[in-house]
Amino acid sequence: MSLQEYRRKRRFGETPEPDHDPQGATARRPIFVVQLHHASSRHYDFRLEADGVLKSWAVPKGPSLRVGEKRLAVEVEDHPISYATFEGDIPKGHYGAGHVDVFDHGTWACEGDPLEAIAAGKLDFVLHGTRLNGGWKLVRTAMKGRQHQWLLIKRDDGEARDADADALLEEPVAKTKTTRSTRTSTTSKVATKTTKTTTTRTSKPASRRNADARWAKRALQLEQAREKPYPHDFKPQLTDHRDSAPNGDAWLHEIKWDGYRLLADVSEGVVSLRSRGGLNWSNDFPEVVQAITALPVTDLRLDGELVVLDADGRSDFTALQKVIDGTSKQPLRYVVFDMPGIAGVDISRSPLLDRKQLLKDLLGDVPGTLAYSDHVLDHGSEVFAASGAAGFEGIVSKRVDAAYVNAHSPTWVKVKHENTDEFLIVGYTDPKGSRSGFGSLLMATPDKSGLRYVGRVGTGFDDAKLAAMHKQLKALATDKAAVALPSHVPFKASSVHWVKPTLVAEVAFRGWAKEGLLRQASFKRLRDDKHAKDLGVASTKPAGNAVPAKSKAKAKHRGDDAADVTISHPERVVFARAKLTKGDVAYYYRQMARWILPEVGRRPLSLLRCPDGVDKQCFFQKHHGTGLGDAVQAIPLQQKSGREEYLYVEDVEGLLQLVQMNTLELHPWGATVDDPEHPDRLVFDLDPGEGVTWTAIKAAARDIRARLQEVGLESFVRLSGGKGVHVVVPLKPRADWAQAKDFCESFAQAMAEHAPERYVATMSKAKRNGVIFIDWLRNARGATSVCSWSLRARPSAGVAVPLRWEELGRITAADAFPLAKALQRAQRLKADPWEGIEDVDQVLPTV
Question: Between the CA of residue 125 and those of 44, 152, 164, 286, what are the distances in Å?
Answer without folding.
Answer: 19, 11, 18, 16
